[in-house]
Amino acid sequence: MNVVRTTDARPHLAHTARAIAAPVSRRVFFGLSAMLFVASAVLTAVVCLSMSAAGDMPMPGGWSISPGWSRMCGQTWPRAAASFVGMWIVMMVAMMLPSLAPTLWRYHEAAGRLGSARAARLTVWIGVGYFFVWAMLGVAVFPPGAALAALDMQWAALARAVPAATGLVVLIAGMLQFSAWKARLLACCRGALSGPSACASGGAGALPMEARAAWRSGVRLGLHCICCCAGPTAVLLAAGVMDLRVMTAVAVAITAERVAPNGVRVARMIGAAAIGIGVLMLARTVVSAVAANG
């Protein structure tokens, strides 16, 4: 008697379904990330161009101060701060999302065993925690930035020193790119978030705990990122926080050192360029001062 052996095709079908669903999930993730990037970039450009149309205030020393650091007519200081922080968050999304998206995707892939919807929610919490830290940085930098802008408008001698100070900031930021501290933080940012730490609990009731863990992971990543980006962020704040050219250059530099195959080498190349620009800026301020005194 012949015996007909049958095999259970369900594992094979499940594997095939996952293989088909994975590229779709990847396309959806990066498609949504691209849409968020474009929206934030367009909004940032609109805000910066509107401020540029309002007119920067010329200052002694041949530079101009952005209206983003001061109150508009009839605006209170709390509203001015809220407006700055709102613009700062949108700007940070546009600048940091290209380098953050691959990290978020690695986390999403590792969390995929929880189910696509659950993994998506945890990935969103990572992003929320990450950009919360950047928002807090905007809250922290506005008061000293606004105070310094007010002092520049009152004291001409201080205003004349700003171009030299900006060149010095760019020079120091370039030197930081060669430090072991920078290399260590960059390696941490490039290899962060392999997966959710609380995935083992598994139950639906554990989701709030997992969400909190994901949010804390995003906060930790944001803190590492702020430290790693201290030099480029200082350049952004010193050279023109509402200047589209400066923002684009800083965003390209941060993205390149995060996603390039050899991030440390790219970071050092960026540092060499920053050092050269800083030296040129300092030399120009010296020539301008000599010409003014002569």
Automatic annotation (TrEMBL):
The keyword Membrane applies. Keywords: Membrane, Transmembrane, Transmembrane helix. InterPro entries: PpoB2-like. The chain crosses the membrane at residues 28-54, 80-101, 122-143, 155-176, 221-242, 269-292. The keyword Membrane applies. This is Putative metal-binding membrane protein.
